[in-house]
Amino acid sequence: MVDFQQKEFTNQIITNLKNITGLNVYGSYPEGTSSFPLATIAITNLPTKFDIGYNELNLSITCTLNLWGSKQTEVTDFLTAIEKNMIGYGFTRNTPTNIYKDNAVNKFTCSEIFRISYNRITGKFERGL
Predict the structure, then answer these.
(1) Tally of helices (H runs) and strands (E runs) in the chain
(2) Where are the domains of the chain?
(3) pLDDT of residue 48
(4) For the chain, what is the radius of gyration of the CA atoms?
(5) What is the pLDDT of residue 49?
(6) CA 62-68-72 angle, 5° bins
(7) Could you count the other beta carbons within 10 Å of the beta carbon of residue 9?
(8) What single DSSP character describes residue 15?
């Protein structure tokens, strides 16, 4: 079996999102930033060796993407480009888009959830459920 490498996967997603959008992309929200627009990506559901079912052949991986921008249309445009790319890699999107103004940073934001499966026998990703 081929174990899933979370750090490498997260870095690959971050690099990919930077390349397609030109956004500043982080693994977590950078406190005190003034560099907008930006995106964060987090692996929010990943089985570990201690989880029941870790020995299953397919791991279900959930990625939560957060976008921030000065305008609602800016967030929508980046989300459209990102979604197209993520779906091209086999992810499925599992949330409806809800863009709102985050008063804490005075920017528009949305949070999207993407899923993909990792086949531990082949070491390849498969379309998420």
Answers:
(1) 2, 7
(2) 6-127
(3) 54
(4) 15
(5) 53
(6) 115
(7) 17
(8) H
Is residue 80 classed as helix, strand or coil in its secondary structure? helix
Q: Is the pLDDT of residue 54 over 80?
A: no
Per-residue model confidence (pLDDT) at position 101: 92
Contacts with 94 (C-beta within 8 Å, 6 or more apart), sequence order: 113, 114, 115, 128
The answer to whether the Cα torsion of 86, 90, 93, 94 is positive or negative is: negative
Find out whether 114 and 16 touch, Cβ atoms under 8 Å: no
Structurally, at CATH architecture level, domain 6-127 sits in: 2-Layer Sandwich (3.30)
Q: DSSP E strands: which ranges in 15-129?
A: 24-26, 38-45, 58-69, 92-93, 100-102, 107-119, 124-127
